[in-house]
Design goal:
Elements: H1 11-20, H2 28-35, H3 39-47, H4 59-62, E1 87-91, E2 97-101, H5 106-117
Amino acid sequence: MARRTRRLWTDDEKRSICLQTTAPGVSVAQVALCYTVNANLIFRWLRDPKYRPEPGTGSEEAGSRFLPVEIVREAPVTCPMPSAENRIEIELAGGHRMRISGSYDPEALARLIRGLTV
């Protein structure tokens, strides 16, 4: 069985955590989850005048607040096809040089380059 270690919080950390509970729309349970502590521990700190936030010193005034976060799947990266005025110049080993103008098929170009370098 794994041994549990007790986390020791400094007074400043306790004040900061308690202050975060004053943000609009934020619950003590949400703050507790962020710090992986039991919400009852934060409630105990809030009852202590040493850690209780002063009225009018909400987290927005102090500069810290919770913001909504949305996790989305990363979109695949696509390379746009060059337009007709675009030109590509490729210099190959052995002094060969390729110039491509306009649109092209990237897979066909890759096969062509592999064929020239073999």
